[in-house]
Amino acid sequence: MATVAELREKLRRPLSAELASGCQNRVVAGGVEKLLASPLGNPFPQVREALRGYGEWSADAREEALKGALALLSDGKEKPAAVKATSRSAVPAAAPGERLPPDAPVERLNTGPGGARKLQSLGLPLLRDVLHAYPHRHEDRRALPDLAEVEEGQKITVEGRVVAKSRRSPRPGMLVIDVTLETPAGGRVKATWFNQPWVEKQLREGARLVLTGRVKKFGRSVQLGVEHLETVDGAQDSLSTGRIVGVYDTREGISQEFLRRAAHRALETVPLDDYLPAHWRRQYGLTDLGDALWGMHFPQDEQHLSRASARLRFDEYLFLELRMLLQGEDAVLEGKRFNARSDDIHTFESALPFRFTNAQRRVLLEITDDMRSDRQMARLVQGDVGSGKTAVAACALYLAVRDGYQGALMAPTEILARQHYANLLAYLGPLDVRVGLLIGAMTPKTKLEMQARIAEGSVDVVVGTQALIQENVRFDNLGLAVVDEEHRFGVQQRRKLLSGRPDVLVMSATPIPRSLALTAYGDLELSIIDELPPGRTPVETKLIQDTFRAQAYGFVMGQIREGRQAFVVTSLIEESDTLELLAATQLADDLKVILPEARIDLLHGKMTAAEKDFVMESFRRREFDILVSTTVIEVGVDVPNATVMVIENAERFGLSQLHQLRGRVGRGSAKSYCVLVAGEHSQKTRKRLKIIEGSTDGFVIAEADLKLRGPGELRGTRQSGIPDLRLADLANDTQIIEQARELAKHILAHDPKLEHPRLQYLRSELQNRSQSVAFREVI
Ligand code: ADP
Ligand code: MG
What region holds the Helicase C-terminal domain (predicted)? Predict the structure, then answer.
């Protein structure tokens, strides 16, 4: 735990750097106030107060205030208010019945010993964070099923006491724990855990458990394939049983029950004043904030949950839109003005081994229009994997170079950077464009050389990773920057690039509806490539039951014998990286037994970026045959020699995700295959998976998925991947997004700075939300 002096120093350093660099509010990503709103600022309320409003001040006012703040820190006048380990009683917990503001630290919430620490470790330092850490799904535990009537494959939740427990080790290194649970109605269920020694202490005899999973029937006895386990201690069970219950993101050692209790306390303790004036709530048919927050954490029924979710989703979009529009104020910037001559487009196209598709042509026109104007281009090109985005971007880069500028292409990982580099060399090399590569893995000497060439303009197009936006890379004359988005770059990083004022093109393969793309990338114009190049042999997809796994892997082995490679993807396991890793490891081990001839390696989410790159690179070099992985391979790496993908427990994936995964094969000329292995599943799930079997069009799949999911269904796993949007259901929210956008525009049209007293709460909520997001980016 940090000492007072250390904490003070941690805060002092960025503040004095800010002072030294002329008080431009640039030193800290997201700004000085965001730094102070972070846990780092928590112990220093006086400093925080002294710099409140910093973002809006003149440089002189900033300088003066910074000096004051630094003085407070250096002579120790500012006594930390809440240094966790050193002063346990510094933050008095709320007295019973006392109300606390949303910005109070969680130490003030009565959550039992270690409670505050647990919440902080989940990234929830303030009460507002607890209120807005919504469950990622809900389980209906009102009427638990009659065990005599459950059906094979049905997903159920049961509650009961452990009446019998045994452990066995059928072969060395394998641990099986069997538990029999007796429900209050006297029914019995058997559940089994393989190789999960850490769950054992929760399974002692007499413990009360809530289990969720799929039913397997053996005659009259019911077995459960457990997907979710909770222990309930009698005193608290009213939050965890007999109702619709939220399931939260957590980590080992922090129970669902604890999180529910914390949420409950926070709801009781914070006055839930609504920041959205009543007439707007009426206009958009939204419930009030209190009802919404209660309904999200502790819904009375489905209707309550759905109106809660509608309101909170609306808010997320509203704040996102407001922020985008507010930032957008200065976003219409002067950029480069290119000629972008048609002759050059023709030259580029004649050097290609193919003709552009109509969609590519249309998008290229949109891009060249932007390039020819004075305004800085900020355009998102969205298109399915393989739709030809990179080819279009290469053409734009060529045009920039022909006009005497440099171009850059930024990729999220080194391996993708190398891949783009190879592609651009192929496109642009023959046209006498000098293409360079700059990535972290290069030797310092090569890096320096490349940096020097970039600075003197003796390289025309540079491909790289984040290394490209680092301080010591100076372009001679950067005109166009292409960013291969693939989810990894944040808005901040994009802006950093933007600040050099090149035109900017972002590429993304995520098939999301237009209205949503506008929201998620509100600062970008949108172009869509909605057509694949002709002559692709679509990936042949087959859905099979897991009882036919052996045949599936027999087929995989056949492909390997022909010199091909295969991806095997393991199912996503909710709530735990560790479990996911274990599942992947287990699968790799199993495959080594089933396919002794194959060379098998493993890729998973707990690896560092460099480790992942290393494994991917050796897979690309055909150093092994089967890559077993968790879903991290979604990122767009080309392995043209991989012709098969097996997706285990396909029923657990979303359709769009399956589609993205499948896009990893079929990238070479050989015919490719995707095998979806389904475990126990319902008719409905089967119908859903059949969509993937029947179509290879990302937009068709997203649409069909949307239609199949009934409106009454309880919300599933998180989907958006966009940090501000925790609840967003991208496919379904078009209408809400449009309404939120309309309201945001309306608000700012009448009150561009949100100064009206009636909007005071809205304004501070907007600031607070931006701060918590920015904080995550700072860290
Ligand atoms: P994306 O960046 O959208 O994944 P790419 O631009 O990398 O797509 O194109 C995928 C593959 O298709 C590449 O091998 C590329 O050469 C090829 N390609 C691109 N456009 C066309 C086209 N119009 N006709 C035929 N092949 C194309
Ligand atoms: Mg691509």
Answer: 568-707
Question: How many Cβ atoms from other residues are within 10 Å of residue 739's Cβ?
Answer: 18
pLDDT higher than threshold 60 for residue 13: yes
With respect to CATH, is domain 342-529 assigned 3.40.50.300?
yes
Query: What confidence score (pLDDT) does residue 775 get?
Result: 32
**How far, in Å, is the centroid of ligand 1 from the Cα of 555?**
29
pLDDT value at position 632?
Answer: 57
Per the model's pLDDT, the better-predicted residue between 153 and 495 turns out to be 153
From 380, 382, 389, 420, mutation site for ligand 1 pocket: most ligand atoms within 8 A of C-beta = 389
Quote the DSSP letter at residue 293.
H
Q: Quick one: pLDDT at residue 721?
A: 37
For residue 138, the model assigns a pLDDT of: 87
Neighbours of 771 (CB within 10 A): 22
Atom of ligand 1 nearest to the CA of 507: 2
Q: Contact at 8 Å (CB) between 82 and 47?
A: no
Ligand 1 binding pocket includes 354 (Cβ within 6 Å): yes
Ligand 1 pocket test: pick from 358, 387, 634 the residue with the most ligand atoms within 8 Å of its Cβ: 387
- Residue 190: which of 155, 169, 218, 168 has the closest Cα? 218
Where do the domains of the chain lie? 4-90, 143-242, 278-330+732-776, 342-529, 540-695
For ligand 1, the distance from its centroid to the CA atom of residue 694, given in whole angstroms, is 23
CATH superfamily of 540-695: P-loop containing nucleotide triphosphate hydrolases (3.40.50.300)
Which tokens sit at 279?
Answer: 């007439």
Q: What pTM, to 2 d.p., does this model score? A: 0.55
CB-based contacts of 182, cutoff 8 Å, min separation 6 = 160, 161, 163, 188
pLDDT in tens, 243-287: 888 988 887 778 888 999 999 999 999 999 899 999 999 999 999
